[in-house]
Amino acid sequence: MYRALIVDDEPIAIQSIEFIIKNNFTTIEIAEKARSGRDAIEKSYYSRPDIILMDINMPGINGLEAMRQIRKVNPEVRFIVTSAFDYFDYAVEAVAIGVDEYILKPVREEKLTEALNKVIKVIESKRESLRRETELKEKIELVIPILENGFINSLCMMEDNTVELNYFRKLFDYEKVGGYVLVIEFGEKDDGKITNRIGAGVKNQKLYNNYRDILKSSCNCVIGPMMLNRIIVYVLDDVRNSEYDQKVAADRIARGFYQRAKIHYSDIYIGIGSFYDNLNKAKKSYHEALQALRQVTKIDDDSTIMHIQDIIEDTIEICTEYEEVSDKDIYQNAAQGDVNNTLISFEKYYVTLCKDESIDFDTLKNKCILLIIGFTNRWNKGIKDYNIVLSEIIQAYNINVLKTICKKYIEETVCQIASSKQKKTNSIIEIADKYMQDNFGEDIALDDIARAVNLSPYYFSHFYKDETGINFIDKLTNIRIEKAKEYLGNGEVSIKEISRLVGYTDPNYFSKLFKKIVGVTATEYKEYNGG
Question: Are 109 and 35 in contact (CB under 8 A)?
């Protein structure tokens, strides 16, 4: 069905056109009739006609101007102009507006039906194109998730996935786009591990489309299927000004997803890999995201998101065939610098191997060599020379000697890991404190200090409180108050000026804060100490 609007200031002209249409077309409905250009504009807005038959010469707003106004609101409408004047200028303007047909009055039935049939063909052709386009979009919407699943499977399951990634890069037109990987895991955190994976996976499989919608509305990304209790996401992004800005942007997307998704399910943990401007390095980002995820699940506090570059430990994790076996606990405790629990885990692992009757002494040695290789691959260093340790293992003549060699190596290595971690921790705290000492008079924000130590703002806030026992803002306040005491002791600077010098634009707020912390007002302190 096609809706038509007839516009003419002469009632007889409207009646004539209406008669011809009703006499020749069952598919055209006369939606409205108008007697002026203004009336046509208003009725066109509400009735949304497919075809407008417009007289040009009308009082007030003429037909040409009315068509211009209507075209702005309804760009798809088709115009047939009727006019008693065969003016060349009118015809030129009509063509510029996009008029389909120009008919001279009096309107003849043959001419009008011919014009209407032409216009109907144009409308039907556009409708058919729109239908095909809509069907194609629907098909693409169905196919894209399947293709994305293939991309993610290639990313995380295939060892040499260069060919497959290049195929997907061309398919998705990712030639000049970089990105990073998010690994999202669902489940309850208990004693450094995610529990109830199957239950979490089943429950969140039903919510998968919700999570997909959240991610797609937040960023340009490729989303994999629910793999047990995990979703793997490759986020496409542009290169930013600095590594820190890139990290903060990724952290912001992850936290935005977490805030919206936790309405559906609260126990969500996210690991974030580094950004790489080459899609072929996406697999590296994936393994980094896994490492960051393992780190955040090991933390005892309420942390839910970890970026690989926020990990303090000096560790390089690799994906190996024995990563998920019983020696996993040894590496996890070692990464924390926990000597005691690492040795306990090793003791359990070694006893289990010794009890296995299918394992002879040479196989036991090989297992120990794999364990030491695991340490070397992850931390790329050891207390002893790598070859010396392997030589000692090979020369071991019984299970007790072998155990002693491995235990000593593990103990010394974990001590070094703990020492390295503590040095890094101390360095970050020192840099943060120095930044506050050097800039206490400025308007310092969390982002400023986090940038100075190259940690994500949210993670730095938790890290600083955990390591020092005090919020960074309280530390900054203490620094400012101590500096204010020095200025007050000199007795030469006004309290208002001191307030500005230590970073407070409001002297009244500074005075209240000073009394709360020191116990006396700034004026009283100045009298007692500055004279």
Answer: no
Question: What is the Cβ-side half-sphere exposure of residue 470, based on CA atoms within 13 angstroms?
Answer: 12
Give residue 6's pLDDT: 94
**Which is it for strands 230-237 and 178-186: parallel, antiparallel or unpaired?**
antiparallel
Residue 272 CA to its chain's centroid (Å): 10
Q: How far apart are CA 333 and CA 342, in angstroms?
A: 5
Q: List C-alpha distances in Å: 530 to 332, 521, 522.
A: 56, 13, 11
CA angle 135, 136, 141 (to 5 degrees): 100
Question: pLDDT digit string (tens) for 232-246?
Answer: 999 988 887 788 999
Q: Sort 270 into a burial class: Cβ within 10 Å, 0-12 / 13-18 / 19+.
A: buried
pTM of the predicted protein model: 0.59
Six-digit token pair at 262?
Answer: 């936790």
pLDDT above 90: percentage of residues in the chain? 31
CA–CA gap between residue 85 and residue 97 (Å, rounded): 18
Q: Is 448 helix (H, G, I), strand (E, B) or coil?
A: helix
Query: Helix, strand, or coil here: 21?
Result: helix
> In the chain, what is the greatest distance between 2 CA atoms, to the nearest angstrom?
116
pLDDT tens-digit map of 236-279: 888 877 889 999 999 999 999 999 999 999 899 999 999 988 77
> Sheet of 51-55: strands edge to edge?
28-34, 2-7, 51-55, 78-83, 101-104
What confidence category does residue 353 fall into, taking pLDDT thresholds of 50, 70 and 90? confident
- At 231 the pLDDT is 92
Could you give the angle at which helices 328-335 and 361-379 cross, rounded to 10 degrees?
Answer: 30
pLDDT digits 0-9 by tens, 419-432:
888 888 888 999 99
Helices (H), 380-518: 386-395, 399-439, 446-453, 457-468, 472-490, 495-501, 507-518
Amino acid at 67: M
* Residue 282 and residue 221 in contact, taking contact as beta carbons nearer than 8 Å: no
Confidence of residue 42 (pLDDT cuts 50, 70, 90): very high
- C-alpha 301/C-alpha 305 separation (Å) is 12
Q: What is the mean pLDDT of the chain?
A: 84
DSSP state of 86: -
- Token couple for 410: 């593990």
